[in-house]
Structure formats: C-alpha cells, structure tokens
C-alpha cells in the first residue's frame, strides 16, 4: 500500500450499502460501542455550537454527538446511509443529514472524522484536511479516529492517515489514544495555542 492509490469511488460504498444492512458492524459490535464511548469522552468541550460529521453512515455516532451540539451537519456519499441516518436522527430538529461527498459549507467548532480518511487517495486527503482546517473556528476541535490494522482494499492505512494529520498546519494536538486496533487524535485549530481540558475549565 503506497498511499498513492485513488480514492474509493461512490459506487464502492453504494455496493456495500446495497449488499448489507450494517456493512461495518457499526450497529452491532461491542468494539464499535466502546470506540464511540471513547470518542465522546475525548471531546474537550461539553457542548459545541456547530458540528460536522462527514461519512456518518447510518448515524450510530451522530445520534450520540447530537445531544452535545446546538447544530450538527452529517453527510454521507451513499443514499442508503443518508436514509438510515435521517430516520435514526428524525427526533433531532437541530441535525441535518446531506447526501454529498463534499465537506459541508460554513464554519464549525467541532469536526469528527471517524473511519473515513483512509478511503481517500493522497491528493484528496491533503485537500480534505486543508478544507477541515479552514472550516474550523479558532480553537475548534477536530477528532480523528481510524482503524490501523491491515485493510488492503483501502488506498492508505489508518496509521499513515494519523501520521500525516500530525503535520497538517493549523492544528495543535490536545489528546492522543493508541491501541493495536485504532488511533484516536484530538486537535485544536491553532492559533490560539491548544488548551488542555483543565485549562479550558479553569483548573490551572
Ligand atoms: C466506515 S463508515 C464510518 C461511519 C461513521 N463515521 C462511524 O465511524 O461510525 C464510512 C462511511 O463513509 C461514507 N463515505 C465514503 N466516502 C465518503 C465521502 N467522500 N464523503 C462522505 N461520506 C463518505 C461511506 O458511505 C460510509 O457510510
């Protein structure tokens, strides 16, 4: 895997969604439940003004993010995923789910990129992270979490995604969590310089 392969096309995801109710076992595995709990626990702020979750699938993570955000914009490239997410999030008037492969317009104080960026080829990854950084308000939070075990069908492995993210300009790391299966990194949009959670709540 060189990291130079092309992004996986929309048809790849349409086929997966057409073939299975829950293509990645997001709805049915303790592994995913636990990982979502870690993502939520890693958010440095209790509440966010406007959040984005690109690649939301059926909304299993979105439904947990929704109570922490005044507004949440979820996107997915697949019609089936969007239908599922819309139905799951129907009770939340402040959540929108859009069918698109583009990053949603406007500014955000939270962006959650969970199990998505390894589907992008190198040029698309660079563009994607630059767009995310531009969309983040100063001090805003970026959470990235990706599987790091072998996945030969992906253009790049998850570890490399996180190594590349570590040198993207405009981000300062707030937290990192590494396991044999996945990496989770939390960044703040800098400047101003990244603050720890204790600094945010006035403990030091
Ligand atoms: C593995 S799922 C991740 C779901 C969710 N973020 C989570 O971690 O529970 C990846 C999702 O990304 C979607 N996807 C792939 N490429 C995309 C793109 N360029 N823009 C938006 N969604 C995309 C797929 O259709 C799929 O539903």
What is the overall pLDDT average?
Answer: 96
Give the tally of β-strands.
7
Which architecture does the CATH hierarchy give at level 2?
3-Layer(aba) Sandwich
CATH topology: Rossmann fold
**Bound ligands:** S-adenosylmethionine
End-to-end Cα distance, whole Å, is 44 Å
Overall geometry: globular
Provide an overview of this structure.
- This is Class I SAM-dependent methyltransferase.
- It is an enzyme of class 2 (transferase).
- The chain has 204 residues and is an alpha/beta fold.
- The chain has a single domain, classed as 3-Layer(aba) Sandwich (Rossmann fold).
- The chain is 31% helix and 24% strand.
- It contains seven helices and seven strands.
- It has helices spanning 10-19, 30-42, 62-65, 79-88, 122-135, 158-165, 197-200; strands at 51-54, 72-76, 95-99, 108-114, 136-147, 171-178, 182-189.
- The protein has a seven-stranded mixed sheet with strand order 3-2-1-4-5-7-6.
- Helix 4 links the parallel strand 2 and strand 3.
- It is globular.
- The N and C termini lie far apart (44 Å).
- The model has no long low-confidence stretch (mean pLDDT 96).
- The structure holds S-adenosylmethionine.
- S-adenosylmethionine (SAM) is lined by residues 13, 24, 26, 54-57, 60-61, 75-78, 81, 101, 114-116, 119.
């Amino acid at each position: 895997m060189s990291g130079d392969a092309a992004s996986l096309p929309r048809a790849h995801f349409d086929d997966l969604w057409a073939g299975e109710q829950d293509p990645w076992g997001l709805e049915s595995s303790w592994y995913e439940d636990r990982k979502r709990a870690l993502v939520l626990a890693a958010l440095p702020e209790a509440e966010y003004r406007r959040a984005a979750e690109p690649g939301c699938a059926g909304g299993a993570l979105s439904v947990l993010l929704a109570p922490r955000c005044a507004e949440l914009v979820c996107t997915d490239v697949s019609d089936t995923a969007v239908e599922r997410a819309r139905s799951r999030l129907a009770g939340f008037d402040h959540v929108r789910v859009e069918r698109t492969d583009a990053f949603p317009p406007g500014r955000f104080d939270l962006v959650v990129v969970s199990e998505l960026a390894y589907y992008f080829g190198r040029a698309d990854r660079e563009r994607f992270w630059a767009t995310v950084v531009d969309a983040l308000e100063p001090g805003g939070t970026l959470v990235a979490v990706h599987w790091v075990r072998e996945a030969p069908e992906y253009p790049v492995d998850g570890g490399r995604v996180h190594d590349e993210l570590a040198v993207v300009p405009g981000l300062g790391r707030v937290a990192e969590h590494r396991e044999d299966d996945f990496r989770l990194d939390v960044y703040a949009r800098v400047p101003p310089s990244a603050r720890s959670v204790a600094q945010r709540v006035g403990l030091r």
